[in-house]
Design brief:
Number of domains of chain B: 2
Protein name (chain B): ABC transporter ATP-binding protein
Radius of gyration of chain A: 17 Å
Structural class of chain B: alpha/beta
CATH superfamily of the largest domain in chain B: P-loop containing nucleotide triphosphate hydrolases
Number of strands of chain B: 13
CATH class of the largest domain in chain A: Mainly Alpha
Structural class of chain A: mainly alpha
Largest sheet of chain A: 2 strands, antiparallel
Largest sheet of chain B: 6 strands, mixed
CATH topology of the largest domain in chain B: Rossmann fold
Number of helices of chain B: 9
Helix content of chain A: 40-55%
CATH architecture of the largest domain in chain B: 3-Layer(aba) Sandwich
Organism (chain B): Streptomyces spinoverrucosus
Shape of chain A: globular
Oligomer: heterodimer
Keywords (chain B): ATP-binding, Nucleotide-binding, Transport
InterPro entries (chain B): AAA+_ATPase (IPR003593), ABC_transporter-like_ATP-bd (IPR003439), ABC_Transporter_VariousFunc (IPR051782), P-loop_NTPase (IPR027417)
Largest interface: A-B, 19 and 23 residues
Pfam family, one (chain B): ABC_tran
């Protein structure tokens, strides 16, 4: 089951944080089709956030076709976002783990590493501008901007 | 108790109150509606009228002018008393009673009483039922008072600075209990607080009082979407004219930071950020006289 962590100071609305963390778990494969999301009461008891926020996040995800609200039963994952290559055991992930260790050993801090990855990603995407992006990617870039 | 047909949690029309016949107005011309099913932050500076409003809603005081309704009922009537709980700053607990005695008293005094729920709230705090109320820590006595307020399963819970004397851990725990209550039973909650960060991500409606008048009564998301924090050169101040409203302006040297209620596109070269609830509340609270009456009226109309 996912456990949500809500950053109160970030200015990012809690429902957005819940959607993002769920999507991340789906991408990483830690959440799979058929898994149950925590109930609003469970999320609220653990995070002390507004229950309407949790319900809104779940509704948004239902509209996006990621989850399904089954009355009296709970909210269940209906679609996976995991791509081949993103799960725990993939070679890409292993290479990145190794690369991260080298970057750390070279003395880079978290922000340096994130900046490197983002820059490499931007450079790659810019040189392949004609390649289609997933809508999710585009939205995220606009949010970052 | 949510949905379009549910009665408003609080509704005031022309509400005014003064403590002495010829004294100043603690509340004046208050006109607002708080929908049910909301968790409302009641904010304002000291003396703005927060406690007065809560005591009126709890039926401890009667309006001088106009009227106030709680879930469509007149505060203080038997109907309102069974459906509304008010937890005041001076928590009504008997120090010589044990926790168990206190809960039994709650059961005797209320026509509806959820013993399991009341005991669970006490147990979650790790409070022994045999402990004397007078010997409890502030966090624990707040929890017992809350158990008393929630044991009668109110549809509307009014809290006057419930966490004022609590440490951060106890605050988090009490807030989680309140949110769980709202999640489980759809309880409407109105809570006054000076601690703005704890309202972030918990409250979804804001009722902001200034000098006894209502300055904001609005949905939190709508507030965040309609306001912006701008940072830029101070010499472009003239771009912030109507229809925008400048809530608060702070200049330091050549740079200026302002909180505005944005209406339509912006002119000028500004770095624009979406404010947190805390930014908006502290902006309005600190604004002093920079919000002119005309602007304040528009703010209310937009609510």
């Amino acid at each position: 089951m996912v456990e949500y962590r809500i950053d109160r100071g970030s200015g990012v609305p809690a429902y957005v944080q819940i959607v993002e963390q769920t999507e991340r778990a789906l991408r990483m494969g830690t959440l799979k089709v058929g898994d149950k999301l925590p109930t609003a009461k469970e999320v609220v008891a653990a995070t002390a956030i507004n229950p309407n926020t949790v319900l809104r996040a779940y509704r948004d995800m239902e509209q996006a076709g990621l989850v399904e609200l089954r009355r009296g039963l709970g909210t269940f994952v209906t679609r996976s976002l995991a791509r081949p290559g993103a799960e725990d055991a993939s070679p890409l992930r292993a290479e990145l783990t190794e690369w991260t260790a080298r970057a750390r050993a070279a003395g880079l801090e978290r922000a340096d590493i994130l900046a490197l990855v983002t820059a490499a990603l931007d450079a790659h995407d810019n040189s392949n501008e004609q390649n289609s992006h997933t809508p999710g990617d585009r939205e995220r870039k606009e949010e970052d901007a | 108790m949510t949905g379009p047909d549910a009665p408003a949690a609080l509704r005031a029309t022309g509400l005014g109150f003064r403590y002495r016949a010829r004294g100043g107005w603690a509340l004046r011309d208050c006109e607002f509606t708080v929908p049910s099913g909301r968790i409302t932050a009641l904010v304002g500076r000291n003396g703005a009228g927060k406690s007065t409003l809560l005591h009126l809603a709890g039926g401890h005081l009667r309006p001088g002018t106009g009227e106030l309704r709680v879930l469509d009922a007149v505060p203080g009537t038997p109907d309102a008393r069974t459906r509304v709980s008010l937890l005041t700053q001076d928590k009504p607990l008997y120090p010589r009673f044990t926790v168990a005695d206190t809960l039994r008293m709650g059961e005797k005094l209320n026509s509806t009483w959820d013993r399991a729920a009341a005991e669970q709230i006490v147990r979650e705090g790790g409070i022994p039922l045999a402990a004397r109320v007078g010997e409890l820590s502030p966090g624990h006595s707040t929890r017992v008072a809350l158990a008393l307020a929630l044991g009668k399963r109110p549809e509307l819970l009014l809290l006057d600075e419930p966490m004022a004397d609590l440490d951060p851990v106890a605050r988090g725990e009490i807030m989680a209990t309140l949110m769980t209550e709202a999640a489980e039973h759809g309880t409407s909650i109105v809570l006054s607080s000076h601690v703005l960060p704890e309202l972030e991500q918990t409250c979804d409606w804001v009722l902001l009082l200034r000098d006894g008048r209502v300055e904001l009564s609005e949905d939190v998301e709508a507030l965040r979407e309609s306001h912006a924090v701008l940072t830029g050169r101070a010499d472009q101040d003239d771009t912030l004219t109507a229809p925008h409203t400048v809530v608060r302006r702070r200049a330091s040297g050549r740079q200026m930071t302002t909180l505005i209620r944005q209406r339509g596109p912006l002119r000028g070269d500004w770095h624009v950020e979406r404010p947190r609830l805390e930014d908006i509340l502290s902006g309005y609270l600190a604004a002093g006289d920079t919000v002119r009456p005309a602007d304040a009226k528009r703010t209310e109309a937009a609510a």
